[in-house]
# Entry
Amino acid sequence: MKLYYPKIYIKSGKEDALLRKHPWVFSGAIGKIEGKPADGDIVSVHRKDGDFLAIGHYHDGSIAVRVFSYEAIAPNADFWKQKLEKAWKLRQTLGLADNPNTNCFRIVHGEGDGLPGLIMDYYAGVVVFQAHSIGMHRCRTEIIEGLKACLGEQLKAVYDKSQLTLPPIYAKTVQDGLAFGSIEGEHTIVKENGLSFDVNWVTGQKTGFFLDQRDNRALLGKFAHGKTVLNAFCYSGGFSVYALEAGAKLVDSVDSSAKAMELVDRNVEINGFAGEKHRSHSQDVLKFLQNTDQLYEVMILDPPAYAKSLDKRHAAIQGYKRLNIEGMKKVAPGGILMTFSCSQVVDRQLFYGAITAAAIEAGRNVRVLQHISQPMDHPVSIFHPEGSYLKGLVLYVE
# Structure
């Protein structure tokens, strides 16, 4: 079909990534722009000779085009509905679409679901819509209509929480708020593997809860019974609750945010674990590790992203190294350390190197038991390995 969008022409020899279906067009690969696309506009991408390659959303930045189709189409409401149907079918295949023991999960994971720049998470009937690109936010109405068609009565409301994830100038023109349906209040109690968590999609981090650690929280239960456990950077206490459920002897939850500690205490309480087995510490994690005399038989180090851009990568690697040096010093001999990085620009090899350096400097003999990552409702396109952002190691520290 004939397209009437602004055209992006790729430099000769720079089209290979698109031919391999990588969904990003970097600004350095662009040879010529025909027309004057504004941020968020739909553009068509072509070889230098004019042959069609893809359709995507434009942005004047390092990632200039986020591709959502390799066919020459005009994306209408039915196009977005078909995209969402594929994403929902995957969640049905995973057994998440109708699971009374787990009613919170990710419905759309950006490039992993062919919808770059869009995250949608489901919390017991409420979907939190979070656009990371102007183009996806401008398609919000059509996307929500497609979501309503897919979920039917399972969808009670959609809350748009995009302001902090959109480019700053455009973000000033939008407000977070209810985009569909009706809800009472700004939080709800959800179930994850039978455990309960209070999720606030308005004031909570990300979309309200760190859904990407669900499988790793469950894995922790295999190690925690009868053990002393440290959950560092605990946020709302997901790992802490799982450790208590597994029968941990003592769980210390540490986070610099006093608000986070209130969430931890709330989640510990609603699961019936409040008491002497759990202690909350509103402190800087590094200072806590340096000052505590406690040795832990199980430790979780799950810091926020230390780097969100390539120019911060070196500092991030040094940060992971310092943190894990202090952590390893406080793991009891024969203990388990679960350590993570969610920085997309720090790949698995770099993270592994930082942990190796930490083990050397801490003077501990360490064995890798398992490489861990994000759960299956956070799929990674085989053509977009950058989508595998969560990296973790289960370590045995002698």
Summary: The chain has three domains: 7-69, 77-192, 210-397. Residues 77-192 form a domain with the Transcription Regulator spoIIAA fold (CATH 3.30.750.80).
